Amino acid sequence: MPQAVVVREFGGPENLVVSDVPELVPAPGEVVVDLRAAAVNRRDLRIVAGGWPGVTAPVVPGSDGAGVVRALGTGVSGLAEGDEVVILPALHWGNDPRIGGPRFSILGGPDDGTFADQVRVPAENVYAKPARLDWNEAAALPLAGLTAWRALFARGGLTSGQSVLVLGAGAGTSTFAVQFAHAAGARVFVTSSSADKIATAVEHGAEAGFDYTQDGWEDEVVARTGGGADLVIDSAGTWGPSIACVRRGGRVVVFGSTVGTSAELDVRAFYFKQVDLVGTMMGSPLDFRDLLRACERQSWTPVVDSARPLAQAGDALRRMAAGEQHGKLVLTP
User: Fold this and answer.
1) 71 & 130 share domain
2) What is the count of structural domains for the chain?
C-alpha cells in the first residue's frame, strides 16, 4: 500500500505522521505519478504549522516532485505510462502569464502534495524530466528554481553584463538565483552571516559576498558594484537595505518574507532613486518551459544539500527552519 507524510494536526515537524494511504486513481485529465524524489520548501514549514490560508488538515505537504507516470486519466494525450517526469507546482495558473488566475494554487496544500509514494496532478502540470538530472536534482528544481528564474528574468529583466545582489546565500531559491544569473553573464553578489555560505556561493558563480550583520555592508555593495546593483533579489522582506543597495533606476524583486512580514522603507530614498519595486511568486507554465529549456542547454545543476527517506521529513524541516542547509533538502519515497 502507498504511504504518505500526513499532517493530521497543525503544529511542528513532530506532528508529521507516515501513514498508509489508498492507491491513487486519476480523474479525467489527470495523471498519477510514482514519485522517485520530493523536495522541501520553506512553504512546507507554514503548511505544517497551519499558517497557510485555505489549507485544512489532514493534508499531505510537498510542492516539488519527480517520478514515473503510473496511470493516465481519460482525455490525457502526449504522455504514456513509464514516462519520466517533473511536476510544475503551480496549479490552475490561468490565462494571465503575469499574475495567474483566480483559481491559482500551489501543490501541497490545499491539494495533497509530494511527500508521498504517489501524487495525482492535472496532466498539464507534468513535464519531461531533464535527461541530465538525476531524480534528486530533478525534484529539487521546480518551485525554488522556477521562483528564482521568474524573479531574475520575467520580473527582474536581468541581462548579461548587469549586476545582481541575491539576499540570503544558501537557501534553495538563492542558490538557484546565483547559478542562473551567472549562466546569463551577470555579475552576481550575495549576502549572508555565514562565511561558509558566501564561499560556497562564490564556488557557484558569485563574485563576492557581504556579511549583513556588519555595519556598513550596504555601502560596500554600492562601492563594489560601481553605484549599486542593477537588480536586488529579496527573499527576506528587508526592503530598506535592498533600496540602499540598488542603483538609481534599478529594480528590487521581492518574493519572500523570511525576516518578517512587514518592512520599513525610506520613502524619499525610494522615489529619489526612482526604483522599481516588484512582487513575484513562483511562476507560470511559460516560465517553467523556459527554465527547462535552459536546463537542457546550460551546465548548472541543482544543488542538493542532503537526501533522506520520507520517514525523516521532520528532520528535513527542522534543518530548514534552523537555516543549516545549502541548497535543497530532498525526500526519497
Assistant:
1) yes
2) 2
**CATH number, position 163:** 3.90.180.10
- 322 and 234 together in one domain: no
pLDDT tens across the length of the chain (333 residues): 999 999 999 999 998 999 999 999 999 999 999 999 999 999 999 999 998 999 999 999 999 999 999 999 999 999 999 999 999 999 998 888 777 788 889 999 999 999 999 999 999 999 999 999 999 999 999 999 999 999 999 999 999 999 999 999 988 899 999 999 999 999 999 999 999 999 999 999 999 999 999 999 999 999 999 999 999 999 988 889 999 999 999 999 999 877 767 778 888 888 999 999 999 999 999 999 999 999 999 999 999 999 999 999 999 999 999 988 888 999 998
Q: Give the residue numbers spanning the domain of 232.
A: 146-279
Q: Are residues 27 and 98 in the same domain?
A: yes
Cell for 1?
Answer: 500500500
| 274 domain residue, yes or no | yes
In degrees, rounded to 5, the angle at the alpha carbon of residue 116 between the alpha carbons of residues 295 and 52 is 85
